[in-house]
Each structure stands twice: as C-alpha cells, then as structure tokens.
C-alpha cells in the first residue's frame, strides 16, 4: 500500500488533500491522471448499466434531501457504528474492530458486551498499548448541516440509494418502464466514519454507483440476484482484478435486517487483506413501503397485462467508485526488469481505462520539421482521445514516463516520417514497435483501444 500511495502522489493520480494546511482528516484529491481514471470507470459503469441495457434508466439526484427520507429509511436512528475512546492517548476507534482484532470475537451491535470484553480482557489500545477504555457508545454516521428556509437538521446523504427511491413514482409516471426495471445513479455520499483509513478505501466523502432494481415479489429473485453477482464480478474483472483475487462473502442469516432475504459482498484481496468492494442486497419492499408510509404517497406498480397492483421488491447492487479506483491502481501496478538490466514501473491498466491513451513524440526537439509534424498528428487525434505531447529528454525516458502512467501507445515522428508519412507505434505491454502510415493511426486506435 505504501508504494501505491507514494506512487499516486508522485505521478499525479491521488494527492493528500489540504496538504499545505497540514492535511485534513484522511481526505484526498484526485490529480489529473486519477481524475481521468475515475471518469473512465464511471463511463464504463454507465455504459454497462444504463446505455447497453434497456431495463435501467439513470438519474442524478441531490446530496441534500428532505430529512424525512432518512427517518423513513432508518438512518436517523439506526445508521450507527460503535465507538470507543482510549482514555490514555485520546484516540477514537471502531469498537467492533478493536474487539475483533484483539480477541477474534464478532460482537458487532452488542455495545455492553463489547465494553465488558474490552475491560475484562484488558484489550490493549492499538495506538498506545494502554488498557483504559471508555464505555462503547453508538455514533450516528450522518453529517449534519443547516439549510436556509428549512427547519430542523439537514444531512449530507450517507448513500445515493435514498435519492433513487424517492424518484420511483416520477420514473414510473414519466418513463415507459416495466417491472423488472432499475434506476441507476452515480454520486457523492458522506459518512462520518469513526476511522477513515487505508488510503481511498475508507473515506468520509466518497462516491457510489448504485442501482435499485425493482422486481415482481412473485418472480424468481434468486436468479436475478445471481445474475447481478456475476455482473459485479465481471465489472471488477474489467477494472483489471484477477478472478482469484475476488471472493463472495454471504452475510449470516441471523445478521440480516428483518426485511432482507440475502446480502452478499464481493470482496477483493487488497494489500491489507480481503475487504468489501461491492455489495448486493435483497431489500424486499422495505424502502418503497417505508417511503410510502412516511410520505403518504402510494408507491406501487400497476401490471396492466395481469391487472395486478403491487409494491415491487428491490435488489440493490452497489459499487464504491473510490474502491474501484483503488482496485484498478493495485491491479495495474507492475515493476519489471527489462533488457539491459533496467527496471520500469508500468501501470498495466486495461486499455479502455488508461488515463492517457496516446503520447506523441517528435524524435528530436530541435528539428522544427519533426516537431511540426508531431504537433499536426497530436492536433488531429486530441479531440477523440486523451493524448500527451512530449518532446523532453531521450525517447527511452519518454517511454518510461508514459509506462508509469499506463499509456497504451506511444507514437514517434522521425526522419522517415518526413520521407514517407509513416510513424512508429510502440506498445506499452510488449514494448514492440511497429511502423504504420499516419492515415492508419485513427483506425489502429479504434481497433486497439476498445
Ligand atoms: N445503499 C447501500 C449501501 O450504501 P454500503 O455497503 O454501506 O451499502 C456501498 O455501501 C458501497 O459503498 C460499499 O460496497 C463500498 O464500496 C462503498 N463504501 C461504503 N463506505 C465507504 C467509505 N467510507 N469509503 C469509501 N467507500 C465506501
């Protein structure tokens, strides 16, 4: 992880945020290459979820929403984590994590039991080694704020899902959707996590890509559930994850909420161990029924073919965007020995995710005719692909720079170009070069960057 974190800063993928002011609570900015990577992941998700399917529509709802929503969903009272403070070093921890790491006991949700274990078993503080704990208390994870013209607390949404459920009626009324259908959304979510850690894995401000998939309560939900699981695994693979680095973790029946029939996490083998990447939950009719109850509006679906009216059940595939970025970075990072004893760092992103698709080099910086030709090529492709122009240093160094940011192709304009309008195209992974005509470049890219 340390290598990835410092690499990301050095190469403009992810910066610690507010750094000139001494940092700010484990928050991060995506740098220019990180932003391109992030946008490419969002585009890929939208393409697979909304564009290529005819049963899912996309929306973009607000972060600030009527607080009744969070009462209805149970977040106001129940969206809590257990916290405990070390009285010696004053550090705050997730109590269930401290207990589990020290004793192997999973006591999530059992506050008194956790206090007892921490005190009786003299569990040591992971920070200072003392054993002097406060009682375990619940902390609501929603960020509170205020809004002019609105009485009472307002919250930054803790998940994007809420903004989807409250548009169910508008979607039914305005779009020609038929159950089963889904609503997808990408956007920010905020949680006042007790401990934000592991780089961009656990943040307080993060992005989710979520789908609420509405089904007939009488349909074979297991099949639909399994298809979504496969979809999620496939999506992780399209980020570069190896199949063997993924696993499914099914939540124990007794730990499920009363309305849920099944919840499975897709876990990825991060450098700090297998941890949740995506989640998939059967939520029954809980959300629509609750919003119906709290809003007084009927949230039903009318099946005209069978003259039936019902409240659909929901299957919810949820994807953490920042965790997708982390997987793409970890999976792509390679240190390789190359000919001549040299080493290179190469980010082997799947080509469709690479932040920069093409770099264009004039062989020599001080030959205006080479620079002019290279500029012409750059100008002709920059509208279609993210490109970089680089005339600095020897070609080997320029290749290394592009390898480090994962650019799939480098084009060099040399003296032969001036004679016969051909260029060399060098492949990031094989490091092989081939000569093609300038006019073939666009079709080459179209074919190879899919
Ligand atoms: N609507 C369901 C829901 O929000 P969740 O498991 O709490 O479920 C969904 O969150 C996904 O959001 C997770 O699988 C994870 O990828 C991502 N996520 C959750 N908390 C996060 C955090 N603090 N930082 C970064 N990503 C987070």
Q: What number is the mean pLDDT?
A: 96
Q: What is the number of E strands?
A: 23
The spatial strand order of the largest sheet comes to 3-9-10-16-13-12-11
Number of distinct helices: 15
Q: Radius of gyration from the CA trace?
A: 26 Å
Q: Say what oligomer this is.
A: single chain
Q: What is the distance, rounded to the nearest whole angstrom, between the alpha carbons of the first and last residues?
A: 30 Å
State the helical fraction.
25-40%
The low-confidence runs, each spanning 5 or more residues with pLDDT under 50, are none
| Beta strand % | 25-35%
Q: Helix- and strand-based class?
A: alpha+beta
Q: Any ligands, ions or cofactors bound here, and which?
A: glycyl-adenosine-5'-phosphate
> How does the major sheet shape up?
7 strands, mixed
The shape is globular
Describe this protein's structure:
This protein is an alpha+beta fold and 450 residues long. Helix 2 crosses helix 11 and helix 5 packs across helix 6. The protein is globular, with a radius of gyration of 26 Å. The protein starts with a helix and ends with a helix. It binds glycyl-adenosine-5'-phosphate.
